[in-house]
Predict the 3D structure of the following.
Amino acid sequence: MSFQPRAGLALTATLFALLSTGTAAAAIPAGSVTEFSAGIGGAAGLGSVAAGPDGNVWFVEANQNRIGRITPSGAVTEFTTGITAGAAPASIVAGPDGNMWFTESGSTPRIGRITPAGAVVEFATGISALAHLGSITVGSDGNMWFTELDGNRIGRITPAGTVQEFSSGITASSTPSGIAAGADGNLWFTERTANQIGRITTLGVVAEFAVPLANSAPLGIASGPDGNLWFTERTGNQVGVMTPSGVASEFSTGLSAGAALAEIAAGPDGNMWFAESGQNQVGRVTPAGAFTEFGAGITNPASPTGIASGPDGNLWFSESTGNRIARIGSGVNVVVRSPAVYGAGRVAERALCDEGSWKASLDIGSYAFQWMRDGLDIVGATDGAYTPLSGDEGHLLGCRVTASPAHQLALYSGLSTTITVAAQSVGPAGTGGATGSAGAAGASGANGGAGATGRAGESGAGGAAGARGAAAIPTTTAVLLHTRLATVRGKRFTIRYLAGRGTRLVLTVRSRRGQTVARLASLTTPKAGRGSVSARHTLASGSYTLVLTSLEPAGARVVDLIPLTVKNA
């Protein structure tokens, strides 16, 4: 996030009063299932699902050649325009560019990109014929990586659409299937017919590791909260886990026979969740290997297939036979303190979106912001600050924060409550002008018999009304004069601000988990205008948020916050 204060900006004492604080909703009980079918076309061939940056869940419809989107409340929209006939979308993931990327497993292999609004672009150049594309994920290098089941390769596509394929080091006819980014910065993939797990660096160097149980057909794979890679064994009927060094363990006790395990995903509760196509269930396994299976609420037949953590902190899965998208409660609430909007709520006066606080174990690595007007995204308003325009007057303003865990494929969204934008603050009309003075007496008549004395002149007309008052600017508070700051651990650095005279300020640092980890300075400004304060700290290298708080009679108010990066010497 970045904030852009304007030099010389005077801010009202109420400008950063807390206007909107979203209340975190109660967590849905673990295993509680809700199914959605309305709006999904018949025999869709539902498969992979993924959380989107827009706060919705996206899914593929292989049989109907569509990409679908479902809101947390269950409203479905399907998109077909721009998708080539016979494309057979297979897997989908949120890209680093704010769009969704998907594989097309049809006879002409392509990678597709769809915007949150549904605009599709397809890329085929550089992909070998008859590749039969499989799973897709995002790598630590900011590119999308995908598997080629028949091509026996791993592919990489940049956000601009440039493709490169890798085959060296991959066992012949191994059928690369699932793929996931590991906490070690590499990509990990299942080799279904070779009974192996593969690892490929972002430079294309491959290593392979055997799965202990022979002929287990590893299929789905995902990075776990423990830093290991977790995978399903389709015919082995087990869930496996592999360390970044290639050491594997397998778990089966408590798992139903004939489960036909499909995709697997990390949940916000610290466990792994997976689809059981053969038993119409969703399973959960702890890092220690303890299983729980959930079948209540899943209509038979269903054949759960794709599964992913949703933006609401629950798990979402597809039912390929039941032709439904379903939600299963994780039992936890990812949002501890909901995002909040700070501001006066008036045209031309800046508002801030605070990211709130999130469940600590999620290890949130970054936040993205989207401002909304009447529940719809404001195009281009993706900064942590927003200045309402005249067109916003009378409309509801809010923000959506998307939190991304540092080492897991998940996007969690939180909404602030909304505020109504008022008109720009202006002063009252000027008072009327003073009454004009009396006119001069008329001159005496000419001699020759004295003329009558002239009558007194009439009073002058009232003065014109005063001009309309200028915009009201009461007592000032403060704003930081940076969009971001970088410092070196243990070194002193300078923080510049703009404030009114006598403003009591406190500078603190928050971790990416929203916890206050340092208090840098507290002061009362000696004069109005620009000022600076020097601070020193012992923070570890990493990304933080620098928070400026104003201590006012009504209480402490956060008045500005910017990204702070700490580097090693």
